[in-house]
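In this notebook, the sequence line spells out the residues, with the fold written below as integer tokens. This is how one looks.
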Amino acid sequence: MEKIDTPCPSCSPLAPVPHVILKGTKEILLQCEACRSVHRENRPEKKLVRVIVSRGEKAIHARALLSGIISKGDELVIDDEKTGEATLVQVTSLEVGDKRKDSAVAEDINTLWARAIDEVVVKIAVSRGGITESMELRVPGEQEFVIGDKIKVNNRELKIIRIKIREGGFKSRKGVAIKAKDIRRIYADSGIREPRISRAGERVVIKKRESVWSLKSKRKD
């Protein structure tokens, strides 16, 4: 069943929300998925829009038939003109006239910028003592990473300590899951502990502290 995003007269007159097209071609009957109300409107005309998709260090130039309101953060499927491959992307910016906007009607958009999210490169910062090592992991955009879990990277086991998310701050509560497409960087612990060094340069060995009961027994002996 075909779906479109459009404002709902009943529950969302200013912002587009998902609708199901019940019937019609030029004039369509829509049902809002949020409040289930039904209304009619003319089908939005599609416009061929120039799209620049970033995938890592590369940029893919494509064109896509779009209609309705397009906003920053929207996920779209874009066809690559050269390869014919479809790519799932997330809109990062819109060019309308000579200005950048976060939202616009498709027919007013000159260029749409987006990033590929079907497969992403997750950056990982690994702490070991006072040294931080950078690593990368290529994974599907929908793959989840959970704070407190262990992951394997280059045959090394690392523990996720916190995650910096895109368009936001840090998440550090154990058990919180973040999708790879929403991650800017993962901070992980190598689990390796460096020996403590004394001022004389000798390795410090920390012995297990004896209990009060055991010390009293030794004194009696």
About this structure: The two ends are 86 Å apart (CA to CA). The chain has three domains: 3-42, 47-116, 119-189. Residues 204-218 have pLDDT under 50 and may be disordered.
